[in-house]
Design brief:
Rossmann fold; six-stranded parallel sheet; alpha/beta; binds iron/sulfur cluster
Length: about 240
């Protein structure tokens, strides 16, 4: 998608293919195989003091003192429960269970998302007092500033996973109808994946779709909250 804007990308993709490495492979802790530095999406030289101060000022301005405090204490977890495609969304109940468990362990949960995802984020926050909603309030840049200082990003196979990769923040991405072989992994070396393998119907589309064609949505509904909690705990312990 980006090749029209960056002519070097085509040659870089060729170089990547020539390595003959399966970048969809995971290790025993479900971390995706490390990517060479030149192929990583991780940006260098971040954060700057100015960027940190800018974020601090903004959080104060919107009355998010608790989030600011938690950022300083390195205990913020950003959760992006949405996706443009309905089939790429893990269950709201699953995200809530995960957030509840992590909040019990003294992490500060912030519900994130883009425009159109505010209602879902608010609904989840209403069911988890103490968590905070920033969905619909952040630009891409602001989300990246937050990611830079957060402990973990949890999301579906969506733009958030790539932003986290760019910021080199550990990211736990939940894959449903899409598969890693398509190349849509977060291109960093701190990327962890949960997915349901062994389903004949998967993948059912390159980008996900609005409805599950077989009406089970098993690729997502069969990923248990306990499994995702276990994986998040493992990442936080590394
Ligand atoms: S067909 Fe299979 S992979 Fe596609 S959305 Fe339904 S359960 Fe998921």
């Amino acid at each position: 998608m980006l090749t029209p804007w960056d002519t070097e990308l085509t040659s870089q993709f060729t170089r990547l293919k020539d390595l003959k490495v399966d970048f969809s492979k995971k290790d025993e802790v479900n971390r995706l195989i490390e990517v060479p530095e030149w192929a990583s999406m991780t940006l260098g030289n971040l954060p700057t003091a100015a960027s940190t101060q800018n974020l601090t000022d903004w959080l104060k301005e919107i009355g998010a003192a608790e989030t600011q405090k938690a950022l300083v204490e390195n205990r913020v977890i950003l959760i992006f429960p949405g996706s443009v495609w309905a089939t790429k969304r893990w269950t709201a109940e699953g995200f809530l269970h995960l957030a509840t468990e992590l909040q019990r362990e003294n992490f500060h949960i912030v519900w994130m998302g883009g425009s159109g995802e505010e209602a879902l984020a608010r609904e989840l926050a209403n069911r988890l007092p103490g968590s905070f909603v920033l969905a619909g309030k952040t630009s891409v840049l602001r989300s990246c500033q937050l990611m830079l200082q957060s402990r973990l990003v949890v999301c579906n196979d969506s733009a958030a996973s790539h932003m986290a990769a760019a910021m080199n923040t550990p990211v736990l991405s939940i894959f449903g109808p899409t598969i890693l072989k398509y190349g849509y992994r977060p291109w960093s070396s701190k990327a962890f994946i949960v997915e349901r393998s062994g389903l004949d119907c998967r993948p059912c589309g390159k980008h996900g779709g609005p409805k599950c064609p077989i009406k089970t949505h098993a690729c997502m509904s069969h990923i248990s909250a306990q499994e995702v909690v276990r994986q998040a705990r493992l990442i936080l312990s590394l």
